[in-house]
Every structure is written in structure tokens, then in C-alpha cells.
Amino acid sequence: MPIKLGPNAYGKNAVNLSRIIRHAGHHEFRQVSVSVQLTGDFDAAHTLGDNSLILPTDTQKNTVYALAKEHFTGTIEAFGLVLARHFVSRNAQVSKARIEILEHLWQRMSFEGQAHPHAFTGGGSEKRRAVVELHADGTTTVWAGIKGLMLLKTTDSGFAGYPKDEYTVLPETTDRILATECEAEWEYTAADLNFEELYQQVHLSLLRTFSTHKSLSVQHTLYAIGEKILEETDEVKEISLIMPNKHHIPFNLEPFGQANTNEVFVATDAPFGYITGTVVRG
Ligand SMILES: O=c1[nH]c(=O)c2[nH]c(=O)[nH]c2[nH]1
Q: Which of 11, 86, 202, 242 has its CA 20 to 30 A from that of 45?
């Protein structure tokens, strides 16, 4: 049976780039990690060692820095589109460019209500993500997302009514801590949208639903979050959410003669529930 090359792609991952945008009285600071992945006519490189159609990943990396000077002044979605268009338009052998950008979020310091012009805090777990895919025929898809968003609420969460067998010890509860490290990714309906405004709208909607929802399970809240975002934002085609259940288990204080009235918990890292879902239209 003949053997041939199957699906393949290549590119430079984790191109770490930071950029100051200098204004007269203040600076903006942005930090991203960019990954480039090209798909195309690379058969000869694999089967013959012919690199004549292989744009080096080192060149791809340099391109990210070079184009950042002029083009990384707005959203990561817009920068991703510029990079994807660059690689597809300059390289006839490339049938698809996929650009993924993860942004580390720095917040401007503020003292006595005064925003500091050039000092920031950051290093938190929350990141903003954008993915752009551009095909040689011009078909473009843009996804946006959030990673590492730590969410917790101390009530309005329960888990009951589940099947029980001989291995079930979990007590039903109508009042527990709900905590997660949320990851979300949504697809936009077009590539020429106001990505900043839409991101802020989706982010706010996610937090609002998480906080106000009377949760009967993580699954119930996951769906409510996705449903609300699709209801409110026509430009979102579908949304996928990952919501691991970061358990806070009531600690038994009875040996110490105390009743634990849902106040003292042990926060466990592992194992953890892993709940995922996509909410779609139609
Ligand atoms: O919200 C929850 N969903 C589950 O599927 C589950 N399973 C479990 O043990 N606790 C929980 N909580």
C-alpha cells in the first residue's frame, strides 16, 4: 500500500513580544505571545528534503516583531489579521495561515484616583486570546477567548438530584461554593467587527451571568453563560466554555466540638471536575 504525507503544518510558536505605545502624556503597554502556523504545499520538504517552499520559522518570528511596530497598536484580533494576510499574500504555497495570540493583561496603576502614566500591575492568571485563520481564497475566521479567568461565588450554587449508586458518598447540597478557572472561546460571524467592544461585552456578560445565576450545577451555569452571550451579541456565532469545578469541600469540625455552618472549607487542587460545553445557534 502506498504511503504518503497526511495533514501537516508548521510555524513558530510562542513569539513573545511586548510593545510600548507612546502617547504625549502616557504610555500603553502590551505583552503577547504569538504563534504562527502555516498549511500549504510542503510535501517536497517532507518527502524530498526540498526546502524551496519553506519560509523559515525564524523569518516568521522576525515578521511578527517587524509588523508589530506599525500594526500592533489595537486589538490582538486586528494584529492577527495583519499577520495572516501577510503570510498568505506573500507565499503562494501557503493555503492557510493560522495566527494565535495570547495577551497578558497589564492594568495601569492608579493612586488617589489618578491613573499613573507609565506603571502597571499584572501577572494575574487571566489572559485574552485571539485566533485568526485565513485561507488563500480569502475565507477568514476570527475567534476570541479568555483563559485563566478565576471565578468564585460563595452561594447561589447547589448540586442535587443526581443518581446514586453504591459508590456515591457525595452529600446533596443547595448551598455551596462555586469556583472555576474559566476558559471561553467564541467564533465571530465576520472579520471586520469592533473586536474591542465585543470582547468587553462578552466578558461582562460572562461575569454577570456567573454572579447572578441560581446555579443547579456547573453544567447549568455553563449553559446559562453561553445562552446569554448568544442572546445579547449577534456577532457571536457560537461559544465553547471550559469550567473545571474547583472544589471547596466543607471541613468536618465536629471532632473539635464545632458545627461547620458552611464557613470553613478545604480547597482541593485534584482531582477536579472538568465540565465543557459549546452553545450554538439554531
Ligand atoms: O456542578 C457539578 N456538576 C457535576 O457534574 C458534579 N459532580 C460532582 O461530584 N459534583 C458536581 N458538581
A: 86
